[in-house]
Amino acid sequence: MGACVSTSSRSTCSSKSNGDTVPPPCLGIGFCGQKKTKRTFSDHVVSLQHLPSIPNRIFTNGKSRTSCIFTQQGRKGINQDAMIVWEDFLSEDVIFCGVFDGHGPHGHLVARKVRDALPVKLLSFLHSNQARQNGSGQTCFKGNSKKSDVGDSEKDGSAEDKLNSVWREAFLKSYKVMDKELRSHPNLDCFCSGSTAITIVKQGSNLFMGYIGDSRAIMGSKDSNDSMVAVQLTVDLKPDLPREAERIKRCKGRVFALQDEPEVPRVWLPFDDAPGLAMARAFGDFCLKEYGVISIPEFSHRLLTDKDQFIVLASDGVWDVLSNEEVVEIVSSAPTRSSAARILVDSAAREWKLKYPTSKMDDCAVVCLFLDGKMDSESDYEEQGFSSATLQSNHSGNAIESDDGQKSEPCLQRNFTVRSSEENDNYGKLAVEVDGEIATGEDQGWSGLEGVTRVNSLVQLPRFSEERPNT
């Protein structure tokens, strides 16, 4: 930890001399050395110890210039969800958003560690890439440039492909290093604890997404009739997705559901009915990393249009009880944009009580990013029951820990994410949704989820014994 990255401030990736545009050697992602118009995070050397003082970065209940975020603890112990919005991430037109859902005895610590460290690693890889580009003398490009003629279209297409390739590599490498760091962390046991991650970067009209696990991103967009519709941006990476199940089985892991929750596929060790992980990809969970559970993210790129209104990132506590369409309706009809995330979480909480009154509500975390960059006035914000103090305090019920994870150890008896086999009968059924526009081939026919009772990510901790076969 504590690795630093130094980046430059906002850039236009061009300078004018005698009326001519001269492209400096840059990638068009905020690293050009131009005259500074506004001091942002990118002007500073970044380390995890400096994160709390960085401007335009929020991770507790509140709002930013373009978004609002909110999380609420469920009824199973400490809140294991984490979230972040980081504006001016590379330059003034780049925003990073993420939601992380922890599980296992130390899941809350894993989720917060990933929330803090993953964006910095992403910056680090982009900075390294820019250093290599500068060394090779390659020129910059803009990811959302206009196409004017055939020749320019070909150049712009090549630039677009290159920008996409840069972000893909950065996402893949940062996720890989993040998981490697968790494995070797001296103060955080991730053997049977882990976290999902749904992360997006908006750069101008480009949207880049990397994700693992079953948190989800959707978009509210207007159709040809100017009606609001829901567009699913990511796929819930469940163990029974055909491509996921095939990989797990090749690695000797097992995928099956328990009798009392036949529609909840889980990942099991080859030699023990544990831990029963309810997702196919995650940070941590090293007891299963040799048996098919991976931390390699799915990556996708999308060009935004004027029809696209907002993006919602949320943990599965929201999607377990609300459909994509319901979420879009709730956010689009919120009295103020600043209140949208909180109203969505409140709606999910009500649905848990109405549909499953005897079940333990899951933690919920929501990020609402408005694509036109507009937010309510401060007076509207305060009318919704927020105050400036929300930006300085965590309303999620999370305990505060240091960057290296040092804090009082969580009590297993209070952490209901891991449950014993005797508790299984108290839980109900889950229908799995893996429906998304970017699903390919065999995944596209899967249906959406109607709702669930409380389903835990893990069933029980592995029980290693002398009977373990040599594999």
Structure description:
- It is a single chain.
- The chain has seven helices and 21 strands.
- The chain has a domain at 51-132 and 159-237 and 281-370: PPM-type phosphatase domain (Phosphatase 2c, domain 1).
- Strands 5, 8, 9, 10, 11, 12, 18 and 19 form an eight-stranded antiparallel sheet that branches.
- It is globular.
- Strand 13 and strand 14 (228-232) form a beta hairpin.
- The chain has 471 residues and is of the alpha+beta class.
- The protein is 23% helix and 20% strand.
- Helix 1 (107-136) packs across helix 2 (150-183) and helix 5 crosses helix 6.
- The relative contact order is 0.16.
- The model is unreliable at 1-27, 31-45, 139-150 and 386-454 (pLDDT under 50).
- The chain has helices at residues 107-136, 150-183, 242-250, 316-319, 324-332, 340-355, 378-383, and strands spanning 5-6, 15-17, 20-22, 45-46, 57-58, 62-63, 67-72, 81-87, 94-103, 194-195, 197-203, 206-212, 216-222, 228-232, 254-256, 266-268, 275-277, 283-284, 298-303, 308-314, 364-370.
Q: What's the structural blueprint in terms of helices and strands?
A:
Elements: E1 5-6, E2 15-17, E3 20-22, E4 45-46, E5 57-58, E6 62-63, E7 67-72, E8 81-87, E9 94-103, H1 107-136, H2 150-183, E10 194-195, E11 197-203, E12 206-212, E13 216-222, E14 228-232, H3 242-250, E15 254-256, E16 266-268, E17 275-277, E18 283-284, E19 298-303, E20 308-314, H4 316-319, H5 324-332, H6 340-355, E21 364-370, H7 378-383
Helix pairs in contact: 1-2, 5-6
